[in-house]
Design a protein that fits this description.
Elements: H1 10-23, E1 29-33, H2 35-38, H3 45-62, E2 69-73, H4 79-88, H5 93-97, H6 100-109, H7 116-130, E3 136-138, H8 144-161, E4 169-171, H9 206-214, H10 232-245, H11 249-255, H12 261-287, H13 290-319
Parallel strand pairs: 1-2, 3-4
This protein binds adenosine monophosphate.
Length: 329
């Protein structure tokens, strides 16, 4: 995840972070705050530094356990940028130009705004994934096309130079793969969303969170039913309710039979606030000890570098780069 906001939103948490935490039980897990990616939006240097720590603190608050996962900051492991260059020399210009996120973001920035970095962003993302011989990549639905590019690049390198890179699989959990905007339930919840009250930021005060849930757009009629086609607003709220309580959408809908949207939203506001409050408190606790946080990230970077270096050495050897030798006079 990029450190491009002060707070994660509910889509980041349910689509990605919650899955990261679960995968710790079954897999060796590697997670990064991808600060190099954040450079594509020209952040203020002080803000970028602050958000990098805040994002890492939120990963920890959400349950990423540095004893079980490698947690680090992307720019601390220079192999990401190096592999990215190699992969960019294996990516077609037209292939990169077809990435829908690039097209959307470039259209929003307009004119001379989009940088080459924004264009090659998915190649850097492929490097992030392929450096760790990743089997599974837990992301939201919006990253599916980028994942496909990572797979294509790994397959292309393998076809050209023999087995070199592991071809990753996306791990996209259908129920929470796309959390929608509360004001426009046909658009994904996103930090670049048009209306600020369409997103739930986890570090917001409880009063703001409750107000946004209560003012969420609902659908015609009064019935609380899970039907994403006919009732996208209520279905999105049911998805959030179910994911945060570990219950099923149908079971929750049945409980509200005969009740109105108002009751349902009031209870959902409590569910979200009950989740966000301890999350915010844990984040603040990590942020109050920046030295400890930096130590966790330094340890993670060291462990990440060992894996990344081995992969990059293998790539360099297979593609014909002359190994660097220590000079012995
Ligand atoms: P980003 O905000 O692009 O750094 O996204 C970080 C992670 O959150 C990625 O894995 C995204 O796929 C995921 N994500 C972002 N928005 C949503 C959403 N509305 N629903 C589900 N997952 C999301």
């Amino acid at each position: 995840m990029q450190p491009t906001a002060d707070s994660l939103h509910l889509g980041n948490y349910l689509g990605a972070l919650a899955q990261w935490v679960l995968l710790q039980d079954t897999h060796e897990t590697v997670y990064a705050v991808v600060d190099l990616h954040a450079l594509t939006v020209a952040p203020d240097p002080a803000v970028l530094r602050e958000r990098t720590r805040r994002t890492a603190a939120q990963f920890l608050a959400g349950g990423v356990d540095p004893e079980r996962s490698i947690l680090f900051v992307q720019s601390h492991v220079s192999e990401h940028a190096e592999l990215s260059w190699v992969l960019s020399c294996h990516t077609g210009f037209g292939e990169a130009a077809r990435m829908t996120q690039f097209k959307d973001k470039a259209a929003k920035q307009g004119g001379e705004g989009p940088t080459v970095g924004l264009f090659t962003y998915p190649v850097l993302m492929a490097a992030d994934i392929l450096l760790y011989d990743s089997a599974l990549v837990p992301v939201g639905e919006d990253q599916r096309q980028h994942l496909e590019l990572s797979r294509n690049l790994a397959q292309r390198v393998n076809a050209r130079y023999g087995p070199t890179l592991v071809v990753p699989e996306p791990h996209i959990v259908k129920a929470t793969a796309k959390i929608f905007d509360l004001q426009d339930p046909t658009a994904k919840m996103s930090k670049s969303s048009a209306a600020a009250n369409g997103i739930i930021e986890l570090l917001d005060p409880p009063s703001v969170i409750a107000k946004r849930i209560k003012s969420a757009v609902t659908d015609a009629g009064r019935e609380i039913r899970f039907d994403p086609e006919a009732k996208p607003g209520i279905s999105n709220l049911l998805t959030i309710y179910a994911a945060l309580t570990g219950r099923g959408v149908e079971e929750i809908a049945a409980e509200y039979a005969g009740k109105g949207y108002g009751d349902f939203k009031r209870d959902l506001a409590d569910v979200v606030v009950d989740f966000a409050t301890p999350f915010r408190e844990r984040t603040e606790a990590y942020l109050s000890e920046p030295d400890r946080l930096d130590d966790v990230l330094a340890d993670g970077a060291e462990r990440a570098r060992v894996i990344a270096r081995a992969t990059l050495d293998r790539v360099c050897e297979h593609i014909g780069l002359l190994p660097a030798r220590r000079y012995r006079p």
